[in-house]
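Lab meeting tomorrow. Look over both lines:
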Amino acid sequence: MAVRLICLAVGYMFGLIQTAYIIGRMHGIDIRNYGSGNAGSTNAMRTMGRKAGLLTFVGDVLKCVCAVLLVRLVFGAGHREMLPLLSLYASAGVILGHNFPFYLKFRGGKGIACTVGLAAMLGWPFFVLGFASFALIFFTTHYVSLGSVVGYTLLFIEAVVLGQWGYFGVSRPVLWEMYIVLGLLSVMAIYRHRGNISRLFAGTESKMYLSRHE
């Protein structure tokens, strides 16, 4: 249990690197006071432009990747049999730190870009399916929130399916613990998007376009 908590804490520290907030301050604003009030790449793009949004996205992905790499470096030799689970705890910590940064009164983002890093570190099948599902939904509907929620749901389903086929190579108790962690992250992601989901049903959710024609 101690190792799990350490990995969670390591991830949380990386998650405290609030990319959107930092870039916002470089633009002379607190991103949380503009647009949706969310310290994430979508709001950064809408508020500060595509370059700021892209930098935010890349930064949030990389902080999850870096946290997982550090955990693998430190615990890889002594805990190889549960390394996928420890990597998942590190990713969960990053998402928690990103969503609830203590020094910003726990007002952060929604953790979707961080989850892209999580998917990449789980393995290429997760990254490919996540990217493909998000891209398909986004470019057909232009709803970032819908693509994010669907992508998270498919990530969990894929983890269960591939896990049952032995993809992670861990014991059954470790595998079930991975399902629980991913399930809790999925529930949190959907809960964080509850406002977006309500607006989607009401038909009032804002769309986002990468081009300027709309």
